Amino acid sequence: MAKILVVDDSPTETFRFREMLQRNGHDVLEATNGADGVALTLAEKPDLVLMDVVMPGMNGFQATRQISRGVETSHIPVVIVSTKDQETDRVWGRRQGAKDYLTKPVDEAMLIQVIDGLLPR
């Protein structure tokens, strides 16, 4: 069972992710913006972060960059999950340090497959 941080400003999306993750045996932490996501990652050291892109204040690309380049958090995989589905968004997300990029609405089986592939055995 992994501890997964969901960073998304949509209560509906956060609820969906929480339901999927808990159904698959994971503990869920939640943050509603990028800055809180970075702070919670530092404080809680989750096993993985699911990051939205479009959020008020610090966006998901900026938060991903801080987490993936942070001394204490660079080992934590970040998966961007966004409605932004252009190839340029995917490339930019990976350049910020994201390990994968999924487009909403996310298929549960695909989400769990990506998470399982990134978590240590």
UniProtKB/TrEMBL annotation:
Alphabetical list of InterPro entries matching this protein: Bact_response_regulator (IPR050595), CheY-like_superfamily (IPR011006), Sig_transdc_resp-reg_receiver (IPR001789)
Domain Response regulatory: 3-119
Signal peptide start-end: none
Gene Ontology biological-process annotations: phosphorelay signal transduction system
Positions bearing 4-aspartylphosphate: 52
SMART domains: REC
Regions that span the bilayer: none
Name of the protein this chain belongs to: Response regulator
Swiss-Prot/TrEMBL keywords: Phosphoprotein
Lineage, uppermost ranks: Bacteria, Pseudomonadati, Pseudomonadota, Gammaproteobacteria, Moraxellales
